[in-house]
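Tutorial, part two.
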Amino acid sequence: MPSRKTKTETKKQKSNGVTLDFESQLWAAADKLRGHMDASEYKHVVLGLIFLKYISDSFEDVHTQLQKEKDANPEDRDEYLAQSVFWVPKVARWSFLQGKAKQPEIGKFLDDGMVAIERDNPVLKNILPKDFARPTLDKTRLGELIDLIGGIGLGSKEQKAKDVLGRVYEYFLSKFASAEGKKGGEFYTPQSVVRVLVSMLAPYKGRIFDPCCGSGGMFVQSEKFVEAHGGKVDDIAVYGQESNPTTWKLAKMNLAIRGITSDLGKENADSFHKDLHPDLKADFILANPPFNMSDWGGDRLREDKRWKYGAPPVGNANYAWIQHFIHHLAPNGTAGFVLANGSMSSNTSGEGEIRKTIIEADLVDCMVALPGQLFFSTQIPVCLWFLTRSKSGRPGGAAPTKERDRRGETLFIDARKMGVLIDRVHRDLTEDDIAKIADTYHAWKSGKKYKDVAGFCKSSTLKEIQEQGYVLTPGRYVGAADVEEDDEPFEEKMARLTKELEAQFDESDKLEKIILKNLKHNVK
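Running the prediction step on this input gives:
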C-alpha cells in the first residue's frame, strides 16, 4: 500500500516546481494595487513594467562593467548591441523612473521612456505599452507598483536578473490568465500542459514552430528543456505566428526577457489567411490552437494546397489546424498539439474521412487523453495529438535518441485520472505525472522497457484502429485498469452497499417518527 503523502510533499507536487513563495507574495502585493482596474487592462501595466525592469537591469550590468574599463564609453550604444543587450536611454532607465515614482506625472515619464526605448531599439517598435499617462490609471498606485517591482533582481548579474524576472513574468502571465478566465485562455497555455508537449517532443536541436503562439510559452519551455539536458539554446531556431495584436506583443516581450532570438513575423497575422512562414519546414511543431473555432474563414479557402487529406469543414477549424501543422513539418519532423476531445472521434462535415486518411498515411504517432479542468478558458477535457512524418526509425531525426521502426503502430495514453486540484476549478499535472507520460512515450519509441498497462497505455496496430472506426480516443484501446487486490468483486460490493443503504433508510424512518412526535408535542 503506498504511503500517505505529507502536506509538504503535496504542496510541492501542486506547485509543479514552478511557483515559489517569492512570486506568489509579489503577485499578492501587486494585485492589491490593482484597485478597480480590470485584469486584462492591468496585465499590460504590470508586464510592461517587469519588462522595463529587465532590460534596465541588463543595461546597468553592462554599464557598470564599461565604467570599470579604461578605454570604454558607457554611453556608447554599440557597446551594448555587441553584447546583445538593449540600449536604454537615460529617460527610460529604472533608476531615473523610480526617482519619479511619487510624482503625479509618473505616467508621462513612463510613456516617454517607452517611446525612447522603441526609437533606439527598432526590434521593439510598436511592442511596448505606452498608455501609462491615461487619466483612468491611478498614479499613486502606479508609483507604488514601480517601487514594488523595483525590488526584483537588484544587485544581481544579468543572468540572475533574467532568471528571476523571467520567472516573475511567466508566473504573472498564468495569474492574469486565471483572473481573466475564458478570455485569458486565449493567450496562455497552462505550463504543465506545455511541459508534457515539450518533454514528449524533446526539441534538442532544429527548427521549432508554433503558428498560434499566444504569449510564447511553448518557446520558453523548449529553451528550458534544452538547457536542462545540457544542450545549447543556439541549437534551436524559433519561429512563431500570432493573430491577436496584443498577445503578439506579450510574446515578443516574453521571449525578449528570456533572451530568446525568434522570428514571430513583422506583425500579427492569421495563420490560415496570411501564413508568415510559407516555406518553413519545421523539425518540431508545438501548438495550442483555439478549440473548435467556427469563424476561421474556411469558406474562402476551399481549394487551399494545405488540405492534402481533405477540405476541413467551414464551421470548425480543428482539421484545418491539423493539416496546417502537417504542411509545415520537415521530412523527419514531429508535431505535438492540443485539441478538444471531439477531434478524436467526430464524423461530422467530413472530419471522420480526413482523420481516416491521416491515419492510413501512418502519421499518428501517439494520442494522449488529459484530465478536465487544466485550462483557464474551458473546463472540458482535452487531448494531445502527436504526428510524425517518419516512423521508420531511420537516423537523421532532430532528436538524439534512437528510435525503432514503429510503422503501422500508434501509442494511446489515457491520463484522465492524473493531476491534482490547485483550487476549486483548476487542475494541474504534477512532476510525476509529466514524467510518467513522457517516459512511456520515449520507452515505446525506443523499444526499451515499454509494456502495455491496462487502463493507462496501449500500443495499437492500424488494424485495431480500423476496427474502432478510426476513432482515436485512448479509452477505447487501453481498457480498464487491473482490479487491485483489496477491491471487492462487483456483486459483493453491490450487496454490501445495498444493505448499508437499507440500514440508512431504517435510521431515517426512525428519526422522522421522532421529529413528528416532538412537533405534535410542541403544538399541544
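The domain at 16-180 is CATH 1.20.1260.30 (Ferritin). In part three we will examine how such features are distributed along the chain.
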